[in-house]
Amino acid sequence: MAGRPGEMNDIENGNDFYMDLEKSMMHEEMWKEFYQKRFPGYRELINTQDTKCQLQQDGVDRIVIDSDGTRISIEEKVLNDVHNEICFEWLSNSLTRKPGWIEQNLLCDYLAYAFAPTKEIYFYEWRALRKVWIEYGEYWKKSKGCKQIESKTMSKNGYSYLTYSCAVPIYIVDQCYREALIHKCIEPVNTRLLNDQEYLQIKEEIQKRKNETPEEKAKRASQRLKELKDGKIK
Predict the structure, then answer these.
(1) Which of 38, 65, 129, 143 is deepest in the core (most CB within 10 A)?
(2) 198 lies in a domain?
(3) Over the Cα atoms of the chain, what is R_g?
(4) Residue range 105-116, pLDDT digits in tens
(5) Count helices and strands in the chain by DSSP H and E runs
(6) How many of the other CB atoms lie within 10 Å of CB of 67?
(7) What percentage of the chain carries pLDDT values higher than 90?
(8) Does position 82 have pLDDT exceeding 60, yes or no?
(9) CA–CA distance from 15 to each of 92, 93, 151, 172 (Å)?
(10) DSSP class of residue 80?
């Protein structure tokens, strides 16, 4: 149940972000099945989440090379339980005041928001969704019809910070999103094409992973978890 307007009352303690990322890496088959339907005949599917390329830091978790060669960048969100809302993170860290993902100018073309148990995936043009949040976000944060969520994270260094999110019913998000498209409050999608250097960097990173020994994979996974815990990468 949502609290009074502006009140944060749904507490989720111990929000270990690095665990969320590790879990999202376990859903490759779900994503492959989805992208096969969404982009039939695509040439290649590249997962950047286990690389250190700048694109991953800029909100690009997945790159789809479509049948015509177009490179499409996607930010992926995976929840391991099912809800009737889209949860918009608007403040990532209460200490550093880092904006949440919905407040950032990410470089992705689309946002894919998935509920793993049902394999239900909502697919939004990123700029359209950002326009919707800019128009309605402040209202939703005060609305009794939306859940205001405060999550507490304990860092490795012993200090804690809060993350704030607003959970908006999916039917409301979809209605506002459709209206944004119908009324042309956004420009047509202009897919961001990766330059050759970016593309080759990612391909090199992927090839290195394919050639890794089990020991090297374990070492890399351990190092990545440490960096995530220390807040060095998102």
Answers:
(1) 129
(2) yes
(3) 18
(4) 998 999 999 999
(5) 7, 10
(6) 10
(7) 45
(8) yes
(9) 11, 12, 6, 26
(10) S
C-beta of residue 83 within 8 angstroms of C-beta of residue 77: no
- Distance CA(65)–CA(196), nearest Å, equals 13
- Domain-embedded: residue 1: no
Q: Which amino acid is at 166?
A: C
Long-range contacts of 196-202 (CB under 8 A, 24+ apart): 198/53, 198/54, 198/55, 199/71, 201/53, 202/46, 202/48, 202/51, 202/53, 202/55, 202/63
- For 162, list phi and psi in degrees, rounded to 5: -110, 145
Residues in the chain: 234
User: 186-211: string of b/e by CB count within 10 Å (b at 16+)?
Assistant: beeeeeeebeeebbebbeebeeeeee
Residue 234 covered by a domain = no
Q: Is residue 5 part of a domain?
A: no
Q: Which residue in this structure is represented by tokens 């015509």? A: 68
pLDDT of residue 85: 95
pLDDT tens by residue, 66-80:
998 888 999 999 998
Global pTM value = 0.71
Alpha helix ranges (H) inside 94-195: 126-142, 170-182
The number of domains in the chain is 1
Share of the chain above pLDDT 70, in %: 68
Domain hosting residue 165, numbered range: 10-229
pLDDT tens digits, one per residue of 201-219: 666 766 676 677 777 766 7
* Helix segments in the chain, DSSP class H: 17-24, 28-38, 54-57, 126-142, 170-182, 196-210, 214-229
C-alpha closest to that of 72 among 81, 62, 80, 82? 62
- What is the reported pLDDT for 14? 36
